[in-house]
Structures are given as structure tokens and as C-alpha cells.
Design brief:
The complex is a heterodimer of chains A (510) and B (681).
Chain A: H1 2-16, H2 21-29, H3 35-42, E1 49-51, E2 74-81, E3 84-91, H4 102-118, E4 122-126, H5 137-153, E5 159-163, E6 166-168, H6 173-176, E7 180-184, E8 189-191, H7 195-202, H8 208-212, H9 214-220, E9 226-228, H10 231-242, H11 283-290, E10 297-299, E11 307-314, E12 317-324, H12 335-350, E13 355-361, H13 368-372, H14 375-388, E14 393-402, H15 403-408, E15 418-421, E16 426-428, H16 432-439, H17 447-461, H18 465-469, E17 475-476, H19 482-492
Parallel strand pairs in A: 3-4, 4-5, 5-7, 6-8, 7-9, 12-13, 13-14, 14-15, 14-16, 15-17
Antiparallel strand pairs in A: 1-2, 2-3, 10-11, 11-12
Helix pairs in contact in A: 4-5, 12-14, 16-17
Chain B: E1 4-7, H1 11-23, E2 27-32, H2 40-44, E3 47-50, H3 63-73, E4 77-79, H4 89-97, E5 101-102, H5 107-114, H6 116-125, E6 133-134, H7 141-151, E7 155-163, E8 166-171, H8 174-192, E9 197-201, E10 207-215, E11 221-233, E12 236-242, H9 249-265, E13 270-278, E14 284-290, H10 297-304, H11 308-316, E15 333-340, E16 342-343, E17 349-350, E18 353-354, E19 357-359, H12 368-371, E20 385-390, E21 397-398, E22 405-413, H13 416-429, E23 431-433, H14 439-447, H15 449-452, H16 460-464, H17 476-497, E24 514-519, E25 522-531, E26 534-539, E27 544-549, E28 557-562, E29 565-574, E30 577-582, E31 585-592, H18 594-600, E32 614-616, E33 621-626, E34 633-634, E35 639-645, E36 648-653, E37 658-663, E38 670-671, E39 676-680
Parallel strand pairs in B: 1-2, 1-4, 2-3, 4-5
Antiparallel strand pairs in B: 6-9, 7-8, 7-9, 10-11, 10-13, 11-12, 12-15, 13-14, 15-22, 16-17, 18-21, 19-23, 20-22, 24-25, 24-31, 25-26, 26-27, 27-28, 28-29, 29-30, 30-31, 32-39, 33-35, 33-38, 34-37, 35-36, 37-39
Classes of the chains: A alpha/beta (510), B alpha+beta (681).
Chain lengths: 510, 681
Amino acid sequence: MKDILSELESRRDMARLGGGEHRIEAQHKRGKLTARERIELLLDEGSFEEFDTFVAHRCTDFGMEKQRPYGDGVVTGWGTINGRMVYVFSQDFTVFGGSLSETHAQKICKIMDMAVQNGAPVIGINDSGGARIQEGVASLAGYAEVFQRNIMASGVVPQISVIMGPCAGGAVYSPAMTDFIFMVKDSSYMFVTGPDVVKTVTNEVVTAEELGGASTHTKKSSVADGAFENDVEALAEVRRLVDFLPLNNREKPPVRPFFDEPGRGEKSLDTLIPENANTPYDMKELIEKTADEGDFFEIQEDFAKNIITGFIRLEGQTVGVVANQPMVLAGCLDIDSSRKAARFVRFCDCFEIPILTFVDVPGFLPGTSQEYGGVIKHGAKLLFAYGEATVPKVTVITRKAYGGAYDVMSSKHIRGDFNYAWPTAEIAVMGAKGATEIIHRADLGNEEKIAAHTKDYEDRFANPFVAAERGFIDEVIMPHSTRRRVARAFASLRNKHLSNPWKKHDNIPL
Amino acid sequence: MFKKILIANRGEIACRVIKTARKMGIGTVAIYSDADRQALHVEMADEAVHIGPPPANQSYIVIDKVMEAIRSSGAEAVHPGYGFLSENPKFAEALAAEGVAFVGPPVGAIEKMGDKITSKKIAKEAGVSTVPGYMGLIEDADEAVKISAEIGYPVMIKASAGGGGKGMRIAWDDDEAREGFQSSKNEAANSFGDDRIFIEKFVTQPRHIEIQVLCDAHGNGLYLGERECSIQRRNQKVVEEAPSPFLDEATRKAMGEQAVALAQAVGYTSAGTVEFIVDGDKNFYFLEMNTRLQVEHPVTELITGIDLVEQMIRVANGEELTITQDDIKLNGWAIENRLYAEDPYRNFLPSIGRLTRYRPPAEVAAGPLLDNDKWQGEAPSGPIAVRNDTGVYEGGEISMYYDPMIAKLCTWAPTRAEAIEAMRVALDSFELEGIGHNLPFLSAVMDHPKFVAGEATTAFIAEEWPEGFEGVELSEDVLRRIAASAAAMHRVAEIRRTRISGRIDNHERVVGEDWVVNLQGLRYEVKVQADPEGATVVFEDGSSHRVTSDWTPGKQLAELMVDAERLVLKVGKISGGFRLRSRGADLKVHVRSPRQAELADLMPEKLPPDTSKMLLCPMPGLIVKINVAEGDEVQEGQPLCTVEAMKMENILRAERKGVVAKVNAGPGDSLAVDDVIMEFE
């Protein structure tokens, strides 16, 4: 009996060694942790329960039958993050370079199926050389099985991908369909075709880092939602993100004890808006001063900085924030910012996360590059996302809300629940100067007259009261009371129930 | 008494004067420029008059505009504060012409003391000690030696046209004087084309010590002790204290009496300051007289209990002083630290912008001011005093148009050591964000052994930080206390995280006792034993610290008791840890479980990118122009690009010769601090 028990222990020890001491050392030398070490950091200490420890591949080609390590290059199972359940898979680069075989894929599929059934997020840690070439089409089939599950799980449980090594070729499409992708600087990359193929086909010479490193994907492509210095930091931040997310689409977002006064006034916000309407200010100050304890988890911080997206808590409960950033491109909407915010709004709506919108938008960015790029359809994505969202929506206009962009930014007309404006708000078709030049075209040559008309227009329309007269703004609020007002608004919406007409699914302008 | 007084100033000094005027029941009128519409002094005053655009030469120092404000408001008296029009005789004359009282000395006194040569002459005649020297032209080396010997060594041999240390020699004996004269003369001829030379006494270990005088129009004059202002950076005072740790009673009396004699020699009335330079042997020499209220006046108020602004107003109203020299007692010790919007890590570059956070420590009243019922403002009383004179508020703006001073933080205590300790805690508690500021540097000064010993001379900052300020290295003992605090705080934050909703019942995360604190490359393995009152943090060597605090996650200021000592930390968030600031140090602290720490040790140390070949944006701003293209060779000093920040165009120049490898930004781009504008080969 004792022998049998110790047999299990020795088999487990073998499985835990993955590709062996040498490869573990090599992994560490690259500044990377092993699959199991990563899981240890991601989950509460001692909470990991492994599945399929002893799974091995079934390939008999190319001499593969001689090497059948336990686990087959991926560690799967479940555990807890601050006591809440999550499912996890972590690819083991020390075993066949983390390559994906049929059985490797089956392990991933198993925990994804359980995650959907049991209502818990899936966190995938990617560190894989790609398909297991020796298995051929079986490996490709494996990918597709995972893809299909990513699709089915989308909107049911949160899916988070952490790229901690290579992720190339077909492999990129699994993370691509998850809700969030995080990368590790200098040790991870993602691309559909690598530098060698690029060089052969297009003669472009590019490094893996330039082609698909963390910087590329957080700043240029927007494939990744954030990048961190190393594995330890990345996994700590994923834990922090999970604390904001509900476990599934049937649950409300989590609540945790908070140490902040819901009615906290911020006198300094009364002077946030500069005297000159063209002077920028930092919208993040408003977000941080509104949030519980100033805590803000930003999503896509380095991309389309003219809009800010991320999570805060109000009275301990998660709220998604979308805010125009006047510091960048005057906070205008363009292709990138519309896409960025639209995807964020849809994530929040999927998972019942209320949405807070801070508006200071002078309109859409004009120009051929925008029109040629299809800003019409991209802008429509954000409009669509806001309009279809049924979660509580609270909007505060701090300064400009001009033209179509006013409609888009969670206006009353697209089912905003609370639409507040600061006294500094200007809700109008366009800025005073532009409007005057159209209305009083006849006086265009006469500077004095135009100046007088502009002043008239400003006096009449550069304020929140015209909109308030029509009820498009529910109330004009003092900037210093924003946190209290917004917190109370969401509190009153805790039992909001709104549903859209039955449809198979909508047809958002992708 | 006057019914209404106009304060021809802005910022903290305007607020300061308003406080006393209000206490005396006098109505107050503020003046303001466009940049100060929302300023604190405007809000505090009973009424406010707009006087023009932001630049001071179009508003605050335009006599006509100020006179118009006086007429329109009907003010009967004007307090000029310091700077601006405070020492402008024309302004005093204009006021006199319209029968408005000037809260300051008579025009004649301002004029006489305003001229360096005249004031020195008058001082000499009044029996005030001046720096011995020979102002005439010196023919040859022999004459130079003769004069030097008469003055007494050491002497300074200076070129008349000199500057920046050129053409300047210090001589300690005849031979050096002969040599120094020749080389100074040659250097002066070469550098300035003017070889005139003069010689004066070289003051060794110089200290800047000044006497506060107060005179009325009835012939009474007295001195209110001294202030030591030796800690200066490029002639800008940074730290002041009263009394001076250096003076003895006899010197104080001699300086005080000479100061009063000088004031009376010019018919001075009101408060004024006579500045001296004092050498290592306590010889003192007259420098100049400031015919106004001094920035650092609060330290004198704190040790004498006399409200100087009140005295100035009474004197201006023609009243006779009710205090005599015998009434003046110097009680306890007061220290002032000037908080400037200057970034010490960037060679004290002025920093302007929005004060996103401004929470000064709570004011506490104590000392003679409290005894004499002269405390400005409202504050609870205590064994030590904390006073903060300021003109800003959270959400306010530090503008480019005026002095970058944010506040004058003063502490008073019965002894110097206690006053210093009170200042350290006050600085630690001062929350200031949004702009660069010198708080860490002030903390460093307060902890510097030379300052603590009272041995700082005017060369203190230049000598102790010759390469500029790069932060503070805390002692091992303080670091351990901070590590213990961080571990206890981390535990509190982690426990809160486990209280989230949606947990699996009965399978909750248990927060452990063992932690590894990583701080500035140091590693402490600790055990946090918590109980309802606090936590005992035990270190590897068995020693422990007892930490108690009401800190909760998110609080930006942690006030802790570590053993029996107070520790105040500013707490910020960094990825996976805390940013803790205290005593001028800025620490990144990570608290991890032993296993997390073990894995973290495997992470590669990433060196910060080498920025020596990059042009970084020094301030948040907009690129207006890029002057060079990739591949261009640039010379030292050549303009590279123009960054507009706060409506001001800043030209960034090449620091050395090089070739532009890459330009990362173009006109119209808005950049943050340290964004890379261009790279060099």
C-alpha cells in the first residue's frame, strides 16, 4: 500500500519537473518563470487544484512515442483569487516548447467547458512555440477546438490572456478572442507571421520585438490591453483586475469593503476646468478623485489616449469608466478611440458592470485619413455599444459636448439613466466660432459683427442650460459634488432592469 | 484707526496681512491680475479690484493702476507686502500726494537705504560695522599689499567688472596678495577688458544674520532679535530660524543696537530689517537694510509674540509703540521652511501647474504668540506650534508669472531640537502633488548633521550638495521602521482583499504572517503578529517593532507610531507595491509572501534605458517646432525644438555635439514629462 502511495508521489514529482531541471534553468535565465510558478503567483497560496496531470500525447510519428512527458506542455486546473474561483491554463515552455498538441488542446478545452458550466473566469497563460508540427492537422484541430470554446465563453465568463513568451501563428487567435490580453515587456511577443516570413515575403527587416512585442501591441496595434515589467508584476496586476470582475454573466460585479466616504466632496474639482476653453486639463484627476480610494485600473492606457477606459469602484462596487481626455487631441473621437471605448463598453454590458462616462468632446477628428479609414463605421461602434447597453449608465458632461459626439457619449437619448452636467458644460452643435460662421455667413467679412454674433452664440448656447431646459440633462451639478452625485445615482440604479428586443444577435458595424 | 486697507500684493503675504487687518477690525481690499482671479487672497479680502493682465509689470507694479484701485475702493492705507512696490519711493510719494497712509517707512528712508553705496556710507557714519575695504583704484601690487595689510587678512581681491568668480582671488598673506593682485588684474583684462581692481575683507565662514527693527514716528526704536537665514540657494533664502544658533547675547545686543541706530539715522518708522554678514569669529558687517516686511518675519513673531503687521499698521496710523526694548523676550525657537514649486531632482527647475493635491499639516497654536493673543488665524493650541502662511489651495494654480513660492511652513517649540523635529513631521505630513516641489530637499536639510548642529554657513547648500540634490539615503534604523510599517500596512490591505463578495464559502484565502519586504534593494524577512491594537513586526534577528496606526487602504497619508516614535508616510500606489515617501526619501516598497519573494528574485533586473543620448521633454507641453531633421549634425547649444508649456515657449538646445538619429515627435504633439523627443547617435 505504502509503495502505491509513494508511486503517486514520484509520478507527481516527475510531472512537476516538466521539461526537466535544465530547461527550467534556461526558462529562468530568460527572465521567465515556469508554468507552475506562474500559477502559484496567480492564485491564492495553496489553492491550485490540478487536472490532467498525467495526460500525455498520443503521437507516434517522428519518434515522438519515445518522449511522452506528463502534462504535455500545459498545466491546467482551478484555484482561487482572494477566495473567488477561477480556471487557469498555463503553457509549459519547458515541454516541447509549450507547443500545442491534440491532447494539450483537450486539457485546455476541459477547463474551459467547466468554467462556462460553473461560471468562473478563465485565465490563460501563453508561452508556446505554436502548433506541434509532428502532429500536423491534429494540432490545428486542437486550436480550432479552443477557438470555438473562446467564442462560446465570450460574454458568459470573463476570459483573460497573459502572454508570457512566444505566441505566434494560429495560436494568437485564442487570446485575440478573449476579453483582455496582457503582455510582459521584453519577454513576450505575438504575431501571425514571424520576422523570417515577413522578410521572405515583403523584404521588410524587423525584429520579433518590433513586430509583436509588448510595446507594439499596447501602443500601435491595440491588440494588448496592458504590459508589465516582468512575470511577477503581470500576475499581481491580473489578480488586481480579477478583483474588479464578476465571475460570470449571471452575477453582479463584486463588492468589497471600502474605506472612503461616498459623499466625499472635492473642492479642487471646482477649478479643474481652465478659464480658457481651449486649455487642456487632465481628466484622470477627475476619475481618481471620483473613485473609491483613488483606485483606477486602466485598460489600454497607451493606446488612443484621447479616450480613457478602465475600472474603478464606487461604494466598493465595480464601475467601468469611459472618459474623453482633453490632454490628447483635445479629447476628440476618432477611429482608434471609438474602437477602444466601444469594446470596453460592450465588455461592461456583457458582465453587468455599470458605466460611468465623463464627457469633454469637441467632436470627431476631421480629415482624409479618418474618413478613408472608415471613421463613420468605427464611430458608429461606440454609438451602438452605448445604445444597446442595458447596464446602469451615468454620464457627466464637464465641458464640451459638441455635435454628433455629444449623442455618442452616452447621452440621454441613447438611454442614459443619469445625465449630469457641470456648470462649465457647453452642449451645442459645435463651438461658437464655427456655428457663427455658418449661421451668419453674410457677415463673414465683418470681424466686428462676427465677434458680436459669436458672443451672442456663446451666451445663448455655451452652457448646459439649453439642454437642461429640454430635460436632456437631468441636473446641473457642482463639480465638487461629483463623487456623491454619481455614487447616489448608481445606488439608485442597483435594481435597474432593462432588456432589448429578442434577437439572435445584433449586427454591430464591425 | 483706518477703516479700510488695501494690500498692494498677492499670494501668501496678501493673505497674511488680511488676517491681521481682519483681527483689528479693518476692512480689506485685494488687487488682482487676470491670473489671480481665483486666488486665495481675492477670496479672503472683503473686496477685490482687478488691475490688469498677468505680468506684474502690467498689473501689480503699475503705480497708476494701484492708485486707481485705492481711489475706487476708498482705502485709507496701503500695505505693500514685500517685493512689487514695497520699496519703491515713487509709490510712497504717490500715496503721500493723495493723503493715503503707506504702511511702511517714510520716502526718504526708502531712498537712502535703497542705494547700496549711500546706505553703506550712512551706516558707517551711524557707527554700524561695515565690511572693511578699499573702493578706490589700486595702482600696483605694492599698493595692493599695503591696503590688504591695513584691512587685515584674509582679503578678497576682486575685479570691478567681475562676475562668476572670474578675476577673484582670496589672499591670506602679503605674498598671496601680491600674486593675487597680478593674476586678478590679468584675468580681468582678458575677460572683461577692464582691469580695475578693488580689495575688501574676506569674510570666512559667513552667515547671514539679520536684525528685525521696529520704529515709530515718535522717536522710539527697538530691535526684535535676529533671524538667521544662512541656508540659501543662489541667494534665495530657503530655511530661516530665530533666534540664531550662533549668536551670543553680547553680539545680539551689539547688532541690535547698531541696527536701531541706523534706522534712526534715516528717520525710519515701521518694521524693517538690517542684514549683516557674520564671520566665524562673530565679527559682523552691515550688508543692507530692507525697508519693508520680510518674507521670513513669522519666525520673529513666533519667538517674540509680536504681530509685526499689526505694529506696522499702528505705526502707520501715527500711534506710539507701547512696547519697550525691555518687553522683548526671545522665547523658544522658530524655524521657517520655504516651500517652492521647484523640482530639486531637476536642478530646482521651476515647476508650474495645478496643485492636484494640497493638504498642509494642521496648524497648531503655541508659544508667545498664543500667550499674547496674537495668533493669526484659528488653530487648536498645543505644546508646539505649526504655522503655514500660504496663498494657494488644492486645485489652485502655481502660475509662471510670479514667485514660485507655495507656502512658508513654520514650527515653534521651546527648544531648537524640538522645533526641528516638529518641522520634520510637518514636512512629512505636507501633501503636495501635481507639480515639482522642494519638500524632499527641505527634509534633507532638516536631517543634515550640520544644520542640526547649527553650523551651516551661507555656503551650506553649495558645499553639501555640490552635484545637486539626488534624494536622501535614510539610515538603516529608519528603513527598518518603514519596512515594519509597510509590512503591517500590506497585511491590512491584503486582508481587505479577501473580504470581497463571491468567495467560495469555507475555502477563503488566509492571509499569512510571514512577509518579505523589499525596499531600495534591501530585503527584510519579517513576521507580522497582528492584534486588535496593532501589529508587532518581528525581524529575522529577533528584534521587533511595534506598529500602530489607523491607516486604511487608500489613505495617502499614514500616521503611524513605530515603538514610541511617530512616523508619517506618504503612501502612493505602484504596480504590486507601495511608493512611500518620508524624510525626503522616495521609496519603492514591495511586500511579498516568502514564495512570491523567492520567485521575484528570479526576475531580471531591468536597467532604466540610457537617456544620455536622448532629448527628453522637460515638462508637459506641446511641440511647436522641430528645428532639426534625422541625420543632422548639431552643435552644442543649437536649438533642437520648441516646447510650449503654459503659454510659454521653451527652446530646448543640444547639450553637446552630435548627430540626430531619430525624431520621435512632431509639431502639434503633446508630450508628458520625460517623453523622448529625439535620439542621438
